[in-house]
């Protein structure tokens, strides 16, 4: 499922999700969100990697939120359903993808864009990338974005970004644990392709085992994670025989 604002492209075992709304900085709207969710929740057994990229100079400058018109008095339940639930569904879908998810970030990653970068398993950033969570400038608690980052980014990093509304450079984001690696903007596409090729060189079962461990082990006890590690390794190795 693609829309005019997001392209879903399959290249062998790679599923590319291309944010393609350059006229407004790739603001995520509901059709884009629905297309991404549909793509990542219906991947087949041959898919090894999902990659989220931008077709333009900015990764994603936020969300086109369906806020009620001025003067309306919606109930809390209406706001939860219309405003809060859709981005949470997007973040949950990306977290639950069975294979690794790679974000390739250039330019601005603001609000939802920052959350999209953070929720991915690996985030490759150009050295011109900027990350910000500015919602409190409008006196809005950005708990939806925070929900995407908590557990993946250090709590103090999330707190600093939310409360200060600071604009983090790519290097700041690397130090803070928000991205995995920073590369020169001129070589971002080549670096992203090289990383994708490295991952695609592994079997689907191995990549899924790594993704399962990354997703579930942090909430397990030490003994539980050890047992889970042994189970995943044995299952992956048994697929070779």
TrEMBL record:
Keyword Transmembrane helix set for record: no
Gene3D superfamilies per the UniProt record, alphabetical: 2-enoyl-CoA Hydratase, Chain A, domain 1
Pfam families, alphabetized: ECH_1
Annotated CDD domains: crotonase-like (cd06558)
GO molecular function: catalytic activity
Keyword entries, A-Z: Plasmid
Superkingdom of the source species: Bacteria
InterPro entries, per the entry: ClpP/crotonase-like_dom_sf, Enoyl-CoA_hydra/iso, Enoyl-CoA_Hydratase/Isomerase
Protein family (similarity comment): Belongs to the enoyl-CoA hydratase/isomerase family.
Protein name: Putative enoyl-CoA hydratase echA8
UniProt organism field: Paraburkholderia largidicola
